[in-house]
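Office hours follow-up: a student asked to see two folded examples consecutively, so here they are.
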Amino acid sequence: MAITVTLQGQIVITDGTSGAVALQKQVSAVMIVGSAYSQAQSLIVGTLSTVIALPVIPIQFVYIKNLHGIQSVAVTWTTPANGSNPVITLEPGAMLIFSETNPGAGITAMSLQASGSSTPVEMIVGG
């Protein structure tokens, strides 16, 4: 099965006082052509590292959002070039979007670890 993951939209920055648009940036269609994806609308992550089963290696698209109101989620991933690295800690409501367009490059392993038990995240990975 072939898949195409496309991210498109715009970033708009508005002056809170005047309401004037200070910046409007169109995000060009970032496109990843791959073979598989997986998604979770409410994956529960705990205080122990949760290894994410990747649908294909490497994955070239990642979207993760922390759905918890208080707890944070640490994201760690492995790339062929840099090994395993902590990437970011997603605070409540924060999200991460990653796209790699270089064929053969991407993420070969990924794990999530929350600051507290029963922390929900939503996630889409593909490649």
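And the second, which I mentioned at the end of office hours:
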Amino acid sequence: MKNVIEVKQEWYGDQVSKAIIDALFDGVLDSLPPILSDAKSKCPVDTGKLKRSGKILEAKRDGDEIYGRVIFDVDYAVFAEFRKPFLRPALHKNETILLKNFEDKLD
């Protein structure tokens, strides 16, 4: 009588990859509102139009790329950002929240 050992290996890489992409996407979605809130609190105010124009435009997946957009939708927003940065500091302030959201979603 022969002793036979059979080993079967299954590949779950595609499922793992999808789970990671889904978690990262959810992390981006959860991170956009605090970024917008902080940017609005820091943006220069004259008439209030710039502050009111701030919004979350989208969060998208394009293959393996994931991105979210917070915008200020007035013609002079870019000039205001260069004169007195408000959006970039809000993003930097929330980087740890973004990373924590990723970590939480992956658990």
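Two things to take away from it. The chain has a mean pLDDT of 89. The radius of gyration is 21 Å.
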